[in-house]
Amino acid sequence: MANNLDIEHLPVEGVHILNDDNYRDYRHNAHVALQCENCGKKKGDDGVAELKRCAGCYKVAFCSRECQKTLWPTHKADCKTMQEGRFIAELVQNFYSNPLLLRMLRAAIVLRLGLQNSAAPVPQTSIPFIVVHLHIVPLSEADKEKLVHKQLDAAGKERIPGYLEVGINNETPDYIPIARTPAEERQLGLNYALYKQARRHADEHGREGNPIVFVAFGHGSSSMLSAIEITPDAFEIARGNYSSLSPLLQQLIPDVAGANPVGVRTLLAVANTFIQLDLNDELRLRRDMTQADKTFVRDTGRMVAFGEKPPAGRYSRSA
């Protein structure tokens, strides 16, 4: 099957992002004078021949291994956050760089917001906010069973190959009001600037009627915010017209839905199945499971198999 991927993560039409990974890349490539994050020395100061960036985040630099070791206890948390941000950014960008997966996500968002029966576009008075959960699940059913039955330690370092699954939370979506004054814009901050960027781009290309939705892609304790334009084909899919999809996806939808009506869960299950069937990883959505992923699979599996409830507040309900 033809697979149109954005190999270098070039902009995807109708998808706009602001995230820590962009900042990391900016700092890495910026022509600014580096200084040691611990002692403040610059190249050439007091015998400093070279400054080396932290290999984990590239956000900071050190003049010596001693300075790096000294600062590590305080830098570790920030470094880990930056690495998690990059992990999410790569997954998300690989996901929506595939047009078919992006259509399925957009259609699922339409259903979650209940917009499938809208007769005509109406001006936005607020910005819907949707959470999309990202999980790496085992490629092998045997690995899944071992996690569920605690034959594999979720906190252990065993490598477990997996692939991306996505889910949308079941809670009522939040809505952010459209700012009417510069003061309101400033109060809403950088996120509102992201909305304005997406809205302006859609309007400039004659798509004034397409709504903009905030989508927070979350994995573990980190997330990445996107502003996604909802296009007419997503409304058609949500209404049951699948002509814009590939023959494989058109067949998968009734197979997955069975006797049930097609809903958010069905559309995302089809997207997840499409990812699972990508045996050669052309979508680049296969990853080794993190500890958070292993814990999620173990806890949700034990809840289904044995009725065990996961710790309160650990997981949001997702479709």
TrEMBL record:
One of its GO terms (molecular function) is zinc ion binding. The keyword Zinc applies. It comes from the Eukaryota. Keywords: Metal-binding, Zinc, Zinc-finger. InterPro entries: DUF8205, Znf_MYND. Residues 36-79 form the MYND-type domain. Gene3D superfamilies: 6.10.140.2220. Pfam families: DUF8205, zf-MYND. The keyword Metal-binding applies. This is MYND-type domain-containing protein. It comes from Agrocybe pediades.
